[in-house]
Amino acid sequence: MGRIILTGDRPTGKLHLGHYVGSLRNRVLLQNEGNYERMFVFIADVQALTDNADNPEKVRQNIIEVALDYLSCGLDPEKVTIFIQSQIPELHEMTQFFSNLVTVQRLQRNPTVKSEMAMRGYNGESEDNNQRGLPVGFFTYPISQAADICAFKSTTVPVGEDQEPMIEQCREIVRSFNGTYKCDVLVEPEILLPGNIVCRRLPGTDGKAKMSKSLGNCIYLSDTPKDMEQKVKGMFTDPGHLRVEDPGKVEGNCVFTYLDAFCEADDFAKFWPDYACIEELKDHYRRGGLGDMKCKKFLIQVLNDRLDPIRARRHAYEQDIPEVYNILRKGSEAAREVAAKTLHEMKEAMQINYFDDAALIAEQAAKYCHEQ
Predict the structure, then answer these.
(1) Backbone torsion region of residue 187, taken as left when φ is above 0, otherwise alpha when ψ lies between -120 and 50, otherwise beta
(2) Who's near 49: CB < 8 A, 6+ residues apart?
(3) CA 6 to chain centre
(4) Which site in 99, 107, 231, 316 is 20 to 30 Å from 356, CA atoms measured?
(5) Is residue 179 located within the same domain as residue 149?
(6) 161 touches 193 (CB < 8 A)
(7) Whole-prediction pTM
């Protein structure tokens, strides 16, 4: 079996630069390299509903936003199967089977789950004025995520480093299933992290946390040039760099973090020929004599250079929204065929394919015929 990629995003809002450098940019590169037998990219609406069950309209409205971001970044539906998670009922059946192989204690130890619980104010034991009770669906979403991966026998999952515990839990489930049912139906996936370490967890514009829709510190792929410029101008830098002549720190300085993530060698020749490379720029900032706003203006030029083609493609797709839904429908139909085949193999290994098991039917027939 060849190598297979699966990756996706929750439709809780438009995608941002953290998504782009963390996974989207790499997905397009992987798609165009052609080194994988098949590539699946999905919109994880079921996972989004685990903490938005009381607001399904939010998820519903953002399906198209994520689809537009996928297509505008360059994902090609002729090369990549793009689908919606909820339209593949086989995934939910697999989730139920996998849930019997995972303990509550193991889920409680998952650092990603604990971090997500804390961020959303969930309390696993009780409810009070400040914390909400923990929904079972949210608590068990690593199992659902394992089903997403296993359904397509994915060998490779391109995600950010915060998802490493989730991939490890998926591998555990694969080993448990194959071991319990003495088969080799499922495949252990490997994580594929961005090569640029900075891209693995891009901070928000406030510099205090990773870029997050809920924290309001995002630059969205669909932001207008004016909106993006305003966000960059308000970006966190070095609080000790009060005057242009003061020495500055680049560590923890969002502007330089973003330049590390987005800047390429020819950007200096194109936009700021006073410097040959990013290291020269950093050295000058550290020495003093270089203002924050000049650096921010350079970053704005770099970002616009990356985002302008994305904006143009998005505008084109926005002119034919029914076709975008058609792409999602076709992708979901194709994905369901693959998932159904895997589920059939799983049921066969579990010996619950009763109507297809001719040997079982013959055995039971002989048993009761003999008793008579």
Answers:
(1) beta
(2) 56, 59, 137
(3) 10
(4) 99
(5) yes
(6) yes
(7) 0.91
